[in-house]
Specification:
This protein is an alpha/beta fold and 253 residues long. The protein has helices spanning 21-32, 44-58, 72-86, 109-137, 148-152, 158-178, 203-211, 221-232, and strands at residues 12-16, 36-41, 62-66, 91-94, 140-145, 183-190, 243-246. The chain has a 7-stranded parallel beta sheet, with helices on both faces.
Length: 253
């Protein structure tokens, strides 16, 4: 019988972009549910502070790692470090992401490339690095963070929407590739979640978003984390290739 109080006991989870916002909430909830958590982020000092905070709150072992997910070498070294220090990788959460919003007429090519390199290529790099050890252990959970912008599009976000739509396609393709090794690959598509990533959005866009949400409110980072924790658990062992929208009904497909 599964211990539902600590469903992730004995598991090692790696969360990219784990130092702030949604990533921090995900890392915290996974630790609360029993996982040993590696917090990976571009900024080493933020990763270290978050890892220490989670360890203090939960009593769980944590590891802080500096990573540039847009670099295949950096992603590979990240996974190798987790395995060397924590023994294995059971759960990979690809949460690292950036925005460079603008209308396409004003968007610089470099801003398109930067967003795709982190948000899409970064997911590919991390999946590639983690899949081989997961295949050897014949188990694993990969959860990729997409967005409702990747499902429905968003004006001023051709780069971001394209990258997050790409994450959906990558998720489904990889789920087919590795399913025979009992590795599940799913995506979570958050709606409007106030974080550092969204704080610079125009006020009129924020106000307009509320009118599009049937539940009439914005979400909280923890609500994304709970969805990730479910997909990371044994209870979701028969769920793969799925995109779970956590958006208050903003996009219904």
């Amino acid at each position: 019988m599964t211990d539902t109080t600590l469903p992730l006991e004995g598991k090692v989870a790696l969360v990219t972009g784990g130092a702030r916002g949604i990533g921090q909430a995900i890392a915290t909830v996974l630790a609360q549910r029993g996982a040993t958590v590696a917090v990976a982020d571009m900024r080493a000092e933020l990763a270290e502070a978050t890892a220490q905070e989670i360890a203090s709150k939960t009593g769980r072992k944590t590891l802080a790692i500096s990573v540039d997910v847009s670099s295949a070498e950096s992603a590979r070294l990240m996974v190798e470090k987790v395995i060397a220090e924590l023994g294995r990788v059971d759960i990979l959460v690809n949460n690292a992401g950036i925005t460079r919003d603008n209308l396409i007429m004003r968007m610089d090519e470099k801003d398109f490339e930067a967003v795709v390199d982190v948000n899409l290529k970064g997911v590919w790099n991390c999946c590639k690095a983690a899949v081989r050890p997961m295949m050897r252990q014949r188990s694993g959970r990969i959860i990729n963070i997409s967005s409702v912008s990747g499902l429905a599009g968003q004006a001023g976000q051709t780069n971001y929407s394209a990258s997050k739509a790409g994450v959906v396609g990558l998720t489904k393709a990889l789920a087919r590739e590795v399913g025979s090794r009992q590795i599940t690959v799913n995506a979570v598509a958050p709606g409007f979640i106030p974080t550092a990533l969204t704080q610079d959005l125009p006020a009129e866009l924020k106000d307009a978003s509320l009118k599009m949400i049937p539940l009439g409110r914005w979400g909280a980072p923890e609500e994304i984390a709970y969805a990730v924790a479910f997909l990371a658990s044994d209870e979701a062992a028969y769920v793969t290739g799925h995109v779970l929208s956590v958006d208050g009904g903003m996009v219904m497909m």
